[in-house]
Amino acid sequence: MSLESFPTELLQQIGEYASLPTLNALSRTNRRFHSIFDPLLYIQDAQRARSQPATAGGSDAVRWAATHGLLRTLQKSLQAGSEVPAFAPSMCCAPDDWDHTERTVDGLTVTRRSVELVPPAPAHPLCLAVRGGHADIVKFLLDEEECDVDMVDPGGYSVLELAVLHGHVQLVEGLLRWGASQLLRPEVNRACPPRYTVSATGCALVRAVKNHNERTASLVIRGSSCMQKTTALAVAAEQEGGGRMVQFLLAHGTHPDFDDLE
């Protein structure tokens, strides 16, 4: 007696005890099995995610959808009970008397004041969607799930910086409309100090200058501080072929000296 000859009710009972890989395989067998096992696949994935700590990163379906720009998959997962946290997981802070150390990530110098989560927290679905340039996923997570537009990924980048780094100009425009800060905002745990102290070299304008992206720079320069604009000018002056960006920054009121700046 083949599995395909089983009544639907019995197949559903079997699916309730099947593993996620098994459900995934069964749902791909034929149209009937897909209609039976695909909903169970999303439900079990959501249940597994809810049983894990928030630092685990949520359900596999949500993260897959955010990474690959599959809005319908994301919506199906949420309908099955998955959850998307509004904020990225906080880091565990070290005592105030611990030695502060510095690290550099893609030219960004940060002072470490905390201990990383063990194991390290994965990137939030919003960060994954921004990396991939999936504007519809980003819009859905910000509008429908009310995710924090200023969240920071495990590498220390804000979502606005991620959009700048990956050259997603339309996302930069959208994030600014949603009120994204142009500073790399340290993620704050109420029980301890901010996890990083970030210099002006970590702002979105400097990122855009490093990438020779004048269009993105024109979007973020209005919200940049004098210190950030002057830092960007120094970066542009040091870059090969940076003359055009230097002219752009000066034309937009960039002060060529750090004297008398905030």
Automatic annotation (TrEMBL):
Pfam families: Ank_2. Residues 1-46 form the F-box domain. It comes from the Eukaryota. ANK repeats lie at residues 155-187. Keywords: ANK repeat, Repeat. SUPFAM superfamilies: Ankyrin repeat. PANTHER family: ANKYRIN REPEAT AND PROTEIN KINASE DOMAIN-CONTAINING PROTEIN (PTHR24198), ANKYRIN REPEAT-CONTAINING PROTEIN-RELATED (PTHR24198:SF165). This is F-box domain-containing protein. It comes from Aspergillus keveii.
